[in-house]
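User: I'm curious what two different proteins look like when written out as structure tokens. Can you demonstrate?

Assistant: Sure. I'll show them one after the other, since each token string lines up with its own sequence. Here's the first protein:
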Amino acid sequence: MKEKNQGKSIKKRVLRALLYGILTILSLPLVLSFLLKQPLVQSLAVRKVASWVSEKTGDSLTIGLLDIDFFKGIEVRQLGLRDSLGTPMLRINRMNVSPAFFELLSGKFFIHSLLIDSVEFRLVEHKDKNNYSFINFIKKLFSGSNTSSSSSSAFKLNIKILKMNHVHFQLRSEKDTNLNAPQNTMNYSDIDVTQATIDARNFFIVNDSLGFHLINLSAHEKSGLFLQKLRSDVIISGKMFSFRNTLLVTNHSRINLDYSMRAKGWDAYSDFVDSVRMQGNFRPSELSLSDIGYFTPVMFKMKDRVKILGGRVDGPLSRLVGKKLDIKYGKETHFEGDVSMAGLPDFYSTYIVAGINKFETSVADLKTFVLPQDDPNIPVPGSIAPTEKFKLNGQFDGSYYNFFFRANIMTGSRGKMNLDMNLKADTGKFRRLAANFDAVNFPLSHFITMDSMVGNADFTAHLAILDTLGKQNTKFSVKIKHILANKYHFRNIDYQGDYRGDTLFSKLKVDDPHLILNTSGYSVLKKIPHFHFQLKLSRSDFKPLNLWEQKDFHLSGIATINFTGLNVDSLFGHIHMKNAIVGFGEDRYPVAQIDLKKSGESSGLQSVDLQSDLLDFRMKGQYHLATLGLAMGQFFNHYFPVLPKKIRSVPVSRIR
């Protein structure tokens, strides 16, 4: 019986002790909350924390108000952090923290929510320091000593909900101050972000690395770049910035991609252009090329909006490589290929290698595309219909002023052209352009304003332009196998031109079944141009050539041609032909000499004088020379049967 009573007594004592323990645990938060609410305790806690931080890092921490409530959390006001030189690193107007106190007591840093309002955060690198002050502060704060963190365990902090409003962020390197940086362009040594808001979940810090799921970030950079929205899964450390599942909305662009930046350490970001490797994997996005102007100023001129359907980008800004790029512009323009660029942010000196697997466009799209130059429009001949389409593949290799370009071009009408182009230039105003063309069924009407007269052609051509100190010499040659002109299919035309100063020296040879000629001469292309040619016309059958519809007219001979002007009604000059053969049908009439002169007077009267063995003719008055050919044709149609039939045929070899 006694043993039973002793057993009951032990059970009562155990239950009583357990009850006291539970009551103590339940009352502990109340006691702690009461103690921590006391101003004396809070002031002591602030001094202890500030003193510990100062001893640990050598930096200065100040807290205006610390309010700790076991149930509501921690409220901090007027928190300030300065480095050893007195430069502000962090200022917080108000911060509310809801920690898990029991986990804090066990040594774990877990926070349910962190709400921060009005914060200034600065990453400053001083001239005599080897890193940013705040990064050094983090390293010293969570290290076993002031200089080394190798002996300490990893510091870990987890925040379930993080919200920040009215954020001001600055990154400045006193070692690399670019005083000449344009105000509307990113200066990587002096980044200034204002009006930022951050909403994030599952935030964590492990030593000097952090990560979080970013629901939204918006901000303004002093260059003018406006980040309207940024959503991403973020990991940040001294060696990597990783943004996965990222949606980026800026001034005029909407980008969807996975993006990362990798560097050897925090100090590498002060040399962002060369030392930070960027990697991007694009999903369908819209990009305004003018937004790139915040990083490469010349791009501000390009207001073009392009759609990025896919592709990868890799490398630092100074050596950027794009693979499997799939880009659209306008309604008809589509590019697929690879591009590498070495030399950014200076666009004009950047060396570009582009492999064009597919490029399709229309004239309408080309006319709306803007280039970063004084004349922003692509020089598209006005004779090409806006609906005309082109396809090409090829390669571009070089810079804006020095490049090689090769392309295979196909028009909407299935015309084809192979093009090689080489441009070389330097700062001494020396420029050389060479181009080779090889075309089949190519619509020359697109590039010649006389579209009703000229059609498709098969030809090869070479163009060379040499420009030295403003003195230009242009040479070009064209060999036409076939061309449709004036509704006639011409064959075998060979032209060579040499343009120096204001004079064009020309040679033309035609070996067509109905037109055989050789001519050479020069054209002085001034305000009123002057032309001088020597012509050997071995054969010309006007009717098949659609030059004379009334009768079958033929002409051959040797001629000297001099005239001025371009417009047919203001054209004046002299044509002297000898050893001519004039033919009507099968009849041939030898003419020793033909002289044709056209002159004008200040009163507006014009004179046409024709002297020959066959016919003398003089006409004076005000008239339109364009209609004279028709009138002369009707005249000869009426009178040529009365002429004696001197010769029935003349061998072509006699005229050659």
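Here's a second, unrelated protein for contrast:
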Amino acid sequence: MRNNPGRIPLKFLVAIAVLVLLFAGLIWGVARNTTAPDPLRDRLPAGEGAEPRSVAAGPVAELLLADPRTVDARWILAHLQFPGEQEARAREAAADEERFDEFLGAYFRSRPDVRGLPMRFIRSRGDTIEFYDLGLLVIASHEPVPFEVPPDWGRTDLGLTFQAELHSWRFLTNFLTAYEETGREDYREVLEALVEDWIEKNPYENPAHPRAWHEGAMAKRILVLLNLFNRYKNMSEVGGLRLRTILAMIIQHAEFFASGEHYKPAGNHGIRQDIGLIAAAVAIPEARNTDSWLRIATERLRFQQVEPGFTPEGVWREHSPVYHNYVMRLFSDLLDIVDENGADADLDFLRELALKSRRYMAHVLTPTGHFPPVGDSGEERFGISRWSDGPAVRYSASGGEEGSPPDELDGFFPDAGEAVFRDNWGDDPRSAQNAFYIHMHAAFHPTFGHRHVDDLSFVFHGLGRWWIIETGKWGYERNKWRAYVESARAHNSYTFEHDALHWSDDEDPAKDVYFEDAMVSSDTLAAVRGRTNRFAPADTSVTRTIVFLRNRRTVLLLDHLESARRGDWQGYLHLPPDIEPARAGRARIVGRTSTHPDLELEITGEPEQVDSLEIVIGREDPLLGWYSPAFLEMVPAPTVVFERAGSDVLAATVIRVKDRDGPSVTDLVSARKNGECEIRWREGRELISITITTERPLQASWTCQPAVD
């Protein structure tokens, strides 16, 4: 058949269509490269790593596009309204820009400074000035880098944490403080040069780096701006940074937060936006939208933060005790700002929350007054604030040196997923600080970050040190280390066929981890039971009962491993780096440390239920046997791995701190019968027996009697 010269051949049209589609796909892929699927992106805590979304077109977007260095008197008057006759004076002065600046300075100098600004959340960590004098810049926990004016606001080689701190400006207040203390002009000049350059290089529509307008950096930066506002309005001589520039940026930030475009409910990022909004309203009541700022922030705090974010027990749901404290410190700072400035803000719900929080804080701290390194918590010392103070909190935080102990020996917070046991509170600081302590966790709040895959995991502390630990926080950078520290392998938990669901996997609502409601607490024994089915295969679960024999420094783990199909289970126990473990039998490990040469850590599994036992230290592929002692640090540490196989396995493990020359655990065995589990073992001439009910409510008891040979 001859081709019609008036038509384009069908094959040619198809080829062109394919090429167009391929080219369009290529362009689309390039355009979305910052949001392309990343296997580690979802492993970041809420707010970390996400690119900022654009503010919807409208007044807020237009306001953000204004250059704060060049706003004129009309711009200021459009956003501020001065009281009484001051408004007429402001409008009269607006005819001359220099005269208007003089009016602004005189007016705001006549008003009191904003009191109660939280300086610890303004200053960046590290001795900024000392390093600056050496030509170095230190931000957050990063190593020093050369100090450059102007800096590279868009550098990506140091990670998101560095970028977040760089664009938060928190380190800049140190230069203003140094200028006020020494009179050295170069300190003020550096601050002003960096502010000027940041504004020039980071316009909202095209910043050098997305972190410049990330809501997390902005929530910190507005506190810096309020601090600069406090101090610049009182300076008799200023350089290139004008008061109206600071005012313009405060208004821009406040309107950004009030718009809600980037607001994050039930998370500390959203809370910090609300604090910045209320602080701006308190600092600049002349702002035309002050009432709106206060109303929006107060309502969001109550209905989008506290109500969904805290359990009925008053515990923040982010699965990391440090973040509970962080949020409560934020609330404490906010209450200080409101109270010290006599602001009219209805925040009684925060005061009521603070009272609930005290019970949790008294129990969760270790005997040395530190946070347990659970989830994204570092082992930090707790600092008491006005709103967290109380006799029990003070006693726990001081290691028994101040205050008085709680009435309860154990703390149980089932909605939060935390259980805390102690052997005693101590009657003097020495005994209080050497008490034995267990923290177990079991909960799943899927919309919250800072959780790891630590289902049914626990940590064990006593005599002023750790005996059983977890891998720790490491940091937030998206790489193999972050993926590892979040994984089940990095915790004292289980994997089935070497896997467990990721902490953020909430596709199946039936996959959950939780504590049963009942806990046992007597003078000699504490016990709690939790369950998780957060494994990929259906009908696969672990039920763990943990029993603490207070007067024997002994922890019993009774784990019921169930699956619809037979498979291999891996149970992990992580030891501190300074404990040297050695196999002492088919299912027994003994660990020794120089800190307590007369003692040893003994871990004994039920021999009949252990297929293999391995000690792993610093394995690279796959990662296992590591511990993070500090932010972005990782060192090898022993991990004990019990391998068990089956579809219905009842496995007992005894962990204790014993005298080095004392008898060992032998003949460990567990059995189910008539709705109870009995676990027995020998320690020399003693026979220990623990009985646990399998049905609810949990009940547990124990006996110690002479062994019969």
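A detail about the second structure: The CA atoms of residues 370 and 380 lie 5 Å apart.
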